[in-house]
Amino acid sequence: MAEAVDVVVIGAGVIGLAVGRALAKAGRDVFILEKNAAFGEETSARNSEVIHAGIQYKPGGVRASLAVKGRDMLYAFCAEHHVNHARCGKLLVATSAGDVPKLAALKEKAEKNGVADLTIISAEDAAALEPGLRSFGAISSPSSGIVDSHGLMLALLGEVENHGGALAVSSPVTGGRVQGDGIELDVGGADPVTLKAKTVVNCAGLWSDRVARSIDGIPDDTIPHLKYGKGQYFTYAGKAPFSRLIYPLPAADSQGVHYTRDLGGQGKLGPDLRYIDTNTDYSVDETRRAAFAAAARKFWPDLDEEKLQPGYAGIRPKLKGPGEEGDFLFSSPDLHGVPFYLGLYGVESPGLTTCLAVAERAAALVAAMTP
What we know:
Number of strands: 21
Order of helices and strands: EHEEHEEHEHEEHEEEEHEEEEEEHEEHEH
Shape: elongated
Number of helices: 9
Radius of gyration: 21 Å
Mean pLDDT: 97
Largest sheet: 9 strands, mixed
CATH class of the largest domain: Alpha Beta
Helix content: 25-40%
Number of domains: 2
Distance between the termini: 21 Å
CATH superfamily of the largest domain: FAD/NAD(P)-binding domain
Structural class: alpha/beta
């Protein structure tokens, strides 16, 4: 006999925790299921921990519509809940003379997305801000920053629990069935159980498409086939050379190998982008060090390659392939016809930045669904 519950959120990364928080605050009885032994062990923990300003996303897209709002919501949440973060700023640099005209075009795109605080600065002004930097000019983004992603997720979970919600770890969803008044979910782990949920929100990240296909009754043609974009990082053993984040100009599917630092001052380069066939390969290819160094020397000429050490890797759930710009997908009942199900697919960068705005939109869609 299935155990009756109100809302099940599948996945306890930053998106699942933020969605669970929003629903719990709206008065729903929330149960978050996580297949791993702890929250936030995959994409949410294996990224640059950057708070993005909302610059490069295609105007009119979902990411663009959520980026600035999500950024502002995140800064406010971190301040209110004492989550460690820093509004350190970012420079997006022209690494060749051919890049210089692209600065104005990128600034114009950002302004269409609501980013109002960018300035284009000269190579001399950029070098005055960051003496080790070489460029042909740059965009200064004062609203970019960094955040302690684990601390953020811990604060979100605390909010879930304060509003009556709960998290179950080591609890993978192994299958399910759409029924006339909800969705049954088979949950594995040490004590397998079947839950009958009035509403299910799929925030399973890299596994979201597989989870959806395991639930009988969700039309297969409404479930995307995710692509896996692996990004590797190399840490820098010396003193962090820049106080700001340093990025090259973005491509359609990637922001390129860039310089970031964590809140402890550890500098790092990455991520690169390689499409792979598995969503579990977190190895770091040490032979990529020379390629990372070559990419970074375009803006950091004094980089000492010997100080680059293999760091970590992350995998992003992508809806598009190489050279294509992806977006987030909120798959609601008007798309798939199941009145109790919301699927979130392809929530890659800037998922960390936009988690609260994503959750706000998800909660609004759930509120419009049949309870």
